[in-house]
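Problem statement: downstream parser choked on a complex file, so we are re-checking the raw output for the oxidized coenzyme A run. The parser issue turned out to be on our end (a line-ending mismatch), but while we're here, posting the original submission so the record is complete.
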Amino acid sequence: MATQQITIPDIGDFDAVEVIEILVAAGDEVAVDDSLVTLESDKATMEIPSPVAGKITNVAISIGDSVSEGTYIMDVEVSGDAAAPAEEKPAAPQEPAPAPQAPAPAQAPDSAQEPAPQPSAASPAAIAAASKPVNAQEMGASSHASPSVRAFARKLGVDLTTVAGTGPKGRIQQTDVEAAIKAVMSGQKAAPGGAVSGGMGIPPVPEVDFSKFGETTTEELGRIKKISGKFLHASWLNVPHVTQFDECDITEMDQFRKDQKAAAEKQGIKLTPLVFVMKAVVKALQDFPSFNASLSPDGQSIIKKHYYNIGIAVDTPNGLVVPVVKDVDKKGIYELSQDLMEISAKARDGKLGPADMAGGTFTISSLGGIGGTQFTPIVNAPEVAIMGLSKAKMQPVWNGSEFAPRLVMPFSVSYDHRAIDGAEGVRFTTTVGNYLSDLRQLIL
Ligand code: CAO
């Protein structure tokens, strides 16, 4: 066994660089390329790897020392054949000097290569990362940590900008990263500005004192907004959404609606396009059962429902509610209009009970009475799809020989991509559009 003196290899243009971390102690076994010490200049942090495998027998430097190329830092009792006569090259590393690891600019691509930790309600590591998206340069600029600590943090998905360093000059050490993870696991996660991640594993929005910029007033959110907000948030985070946009020609449908309007009014019923859409949607749901379904909680099965209860998003002074019209497949246009009028009135009067809002299989959100061209509704999970209706407009449409005035309604369907493929998504919207363009198909 030969003892080899380890010296600082060629570290480029750096001279008199401070030792900020000693990563080994006498008695430790090291392999080739294991990091021995961390150096920090005013421009970069770098780790010095071991050129040989063996056992550390002496550490000749202390934290805070200044070192340059050739400075003797420690002795290694070289194991096996890797041993080389130390006296041959007493003042230099045995092997061609490995380049110091990652001075600052090199850290950026290193961090950038690894995908940023994905927020996940289920992953404690991702919760630890909760703060703001990790930007490699930002990390380099704002967090004081050695490459090995950065690598450790990256491995566990911890954003170093959220970790308080307890080392010299606020340097973040491995123990700080471990403490940050423990804090998250025990529910004490503190993010910058005192904001709390809410356990959702997503970066919190920074807290801002808006009154610094002008006068403000603070109003508490209404009860319904608070409740629906939680559901929307959960759906937004859990459901991989895709929104398919489409449009359909409802000229004939609307003519039929107008033809029926007077008769309907005599029965106290207001016919709007929505009820026709409900019927067309249910027919399409029968053609595409994956849209009238839910995923099992473990995500391994799809539960197809053989009943057709359509939730209708209703705008009320207190917020959004989604009462459910039951058995739409078994009801005619008048009965559906009656149901719709009743639940809308109940919703606006704040008189909906839990049973009125339970059991939906698919939701429609209609903004067509207000305006807009297209929007991306949020799936009403655990349902897997939702339709958004926008305002129909008269448009010139080419019919093969001339432009004809047609009433065209834009609509969209957002769906859970785990349950529904893109091709299925557009087949569904095309089918709904075809039914709405020619209502006769609904009786086939
Ligand atoms: N294109 C053109 N006109 C439309 C239309 C469309 N897609 N949809 C409705 N209209 C017309 C109706 O025909 C009616 O006009 P007339 O009085 O001349 O017949 C007018 O717009 C108003 O309709 P309405 O909104 O009262 O009735 P509706 O059946 O279309 O909708 C309801 C009922 C409860 C869905 C609706 O009142 C509502 O609350 N919509 C908002 C839903 C919402 O907020 N969704 C957002 C959820 S995400 O935040």
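For whoever reads this later: The chain has three domains: 2-88, 124-203, 224-232+239-443.
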